[in-house]
Each structure stands twice: as structure tokens, then as C-alpha cells.
Amino acid sequence: MHLHGTAVINDKGHLMIGGVSTIDMVKQYGTPLYVYDTALIRERARGFKETFQELGVKAEVAYASKAFSSIAIFQLMKEEGLSLDVVSGGELYTALKAEFPSERIHFNGNNKSRDELLMAVKNNIGCIVVDNFHELRLISGITGEMKQHVKVLLRVTPGIEAHTHDYILTGQEDSKFGFDLQNGQAEEAMKQSLESEYIDLLGLHCHIGSQIFETTGFNLAAKKIIEKVAEWKSAYGFIPRVINLGGGFGIRYTQEDDPIPPGQYVKEMINAVKGETARFGLEMPEIWIEPGRSLVGDAGTSLYTIGSSKEVPNIRKYLAVDGGMSDNIRPALYSAKYEAVIANKAGADPQETVSIAGKCCESGDMLIWDLPLPESEAGDILAVFCTGAYGYSMANNYNRIPRPPVVFTENGKSKLVIRRETYDDLITLDQLLT
């Protein structure tokens, strides 16, 4: 068993997170329940920032909020001095409601609407990451009408294929994201940005994928970008003030995963950028990064109540829980793997191998296959680790199942930060036929 952050097992054999018993939290908030270890999130945030500070490099660490968006998590990131990467009008709206400093908000995404861009410009956000020529024209039009300047980065695809799942590759040449660095698209976008009266081009952005366990891809991306920048300086006099190398730093979900320390990604990125800029006689730019999963992923734990069971002789034993693909779609979407324990028997040795089924009316609703557990019964609490990224943010109401609540724990206290949806919530938008 691998425990993350502040998680421990108390003398009753119960799983504790943030100094609070998971069994007590279940009694108070019910199940399913997302629990976040905020001390671990703070530790990770400070680790990224401190690495840049120790190496004397000007930087911004922007939380990639698509991993988990809420007013409370934005407030926590604000407390830790991070910036924020949003990818939709809804995430931007949430950030503004959380009173997150607008100058530290970056707006990413491949198909921002005019209304979304208008919201960004009106609220003076710190940077828009421009993904395509359509968006560049929209921004030029909006800023021209408003007579208002806006800072932008151009998202480029450097042609790097990171070692990750095909669905989460984003930096290779054949991608829906960004301007291609090699075929002239990025250069044309740079020229158009420099010609626009109200666009302030800060630099370039790339993101090569997610759940990455090595630094080679980031280093190659930096090399390709800076080589191109050297050409542009010679031809156009353009010198980027910022290079954003994205995120995608991997975490440990199971013993099969072997992530490197977050600070190592940062150190090797810095070394790559320093080496390449020195090689071409360029000024050292600010380095921005966008960790998401690596900040919140292993800080999250999902708690479920075990209900029915089914044994297929000589084949498999199924245990069903009161959640599933409606609160964690990653196993169905990515074949994602997780580890779990029975929270009220966390100190007990495994006695059987079971597979964890969700309650959705879908044969693909399986959370974990072949999980070693102590002998279990209906009413036991199952704790699934590392569900803090893309759990709640991808949660849905399939089968009209309400989404679970979210609780933050730290220093022996728990706080409800998102309430449980009710059946009334599910029909709020419905209209009667007559």
C-alpha cells in the first residue's frame, strides 16, 4: 500500500487524511465523496516556485485548472501565489468569482468564442494563449473596437511526441492544437501579432502531453522553439520575453508508475533553455509552466460505500460501489489504473482479489480490475487514491446520478467546499412539455 501526502492509518485501522478520519467524514458528508489533502497541494505548489527561485530564474507557475476547477481550489492557489491557466469561459468565470487576480490568469484553449475572448479582454486578464488564426482575428477585432491592449502567447506544436497515452498527446505535428512550428504557420502568426496595434506578443507556448515521466520531450521542445526564435530574431527582430513549456508532469497512480520529483522537471527545463539561448546569443526569457495533475492528482481520494457483490465461480468476484463512471470516467476513457484500500480496514492484510464495479447501467463502468483487499462486506468504505485530477472536473450526471461533494482536509479539520448535488438540482434546467 502506498499512502500519499498526510494519509496515515490510525490505531483503529482507519484511513486518515489531513488528520481527519475518513470514516468520520463519511458519517458527516456521505458517499461518494471527494477528499483533498490540501497540505500536499500546498507542498507541491511551493516546491515548483522554490525551484525557480533557488535557480534565480524569473518564472510563473500557473495551475492548469482543467484538472479540478472550483472557487475553493482557486482561492488556495491564490494563497500560494500561483497563476492560473483556464481553458473555457466557465473556468474564467469561476476564477473571477473566486476573486483571483486577473493579471495572473492565462486563457488557453483551441476554440475560444468571441464572447469568451470579450470576457477575458474586459477583465484585463494577464495573457491569452492564441491557438489559431481565427482566434487571432477575433482578438485583433475586439481589441481594436475597445482600443485596449492585450498580452498574448502563441501556442505552437513543436513536433514532439511525448511518451504518453495517444488521447493526451498534444505537441506532435498532427494535433488540433496550436500553430505548427515547422511549416510556416507559427511564423505567419508571429508576424500578424507584431503588426496588430493592440496585441502585445509576449512569446511562445507549447504543451507536449500529459502524465509524462521523463524530461527528454520538454528539452527537445525547448530546443526546437529556441532554434526557431533565433531565426525570427535575425529576420524580424522578435525576441520573446516568455517561453511557456506547459505541464503534463506525471504522478504515481500505481506501482507501475515511476515519476520523477517535480523539481527535476523544472531544473532540466531551465538548463535546456539556458543552454540553447546561450548557444544562439539570446536573452534568457521568463519560463512559465502549467502543472495541473501534479498539483492536485495524488492529493485527491474518492470514498465509496460498498454495496452488492457478485461471484462468478473460478473467474471473478465483483464488488459494486455507489459511484463509478459518473464521478470518475478515466478508467472507461483512458483505461486508467488506480490503487485502493478499505478505509475502515486499512490495516488489514489482503484476503481476496476483487474487481470494483460502478453503479452506472453500463458494462464498461469498472473502476478497478483485480484489486487485492481484505475480506469485505456491504457497508465497508472503499478509498480510491489519486483521483484529484480529472475526477470532479469530468464528473457527469449519466443515469441522472448527482455529482458528489468535495471536502478539503488540513490540520485535523475538514471543510465542505462543493456541496452534493440533489435530485432537484438535476431537474433545475428541465422544462415541462405543456
UniProtKB/TrEMBL annotation:
Classification via Pfam families: Orn_Arg_deC_N, Orn_DAP_Arg_deC
Annotated binding of pyridoxal 5'-phosphate, by residue: G248, E290, P291, G292, R293, Y390
Swiss-Prot/TrEMBL cofactor(s): pyridoxal 5'-phosphate
Alphabetical keyword list: Amino-acid biosynthesis, Decarboxylase, Lyase, Lysine biosynthesis, Pyridoxal phosphate
Domain Orn/DAP/Arg decarboxylase 2 N-terminal residue range list: 40-296
KW rRNA-binding (keyword) present: no
Residues reported to bind substrate: R293, R330, Y334, E362, Y390
Residues covered by the Orn/DAP/Arg decarboxylase 2 C-terminal domain: 33-388
Description of how the protein assembles with itself and partners: Homodimer.
Function: Specifically catalyzes the decarboxylation of meso-diaminopimelate (meso-DAP) to L-lysine.
Family annotation (NCBIfam families): lysA
Family note: Belongs to the Orn/Lys/Arg decarboxylase class-II family. LysA subfamily.
Listed name of the protein: Diaminopimelate decarboxylase
Primary gene name: lysA
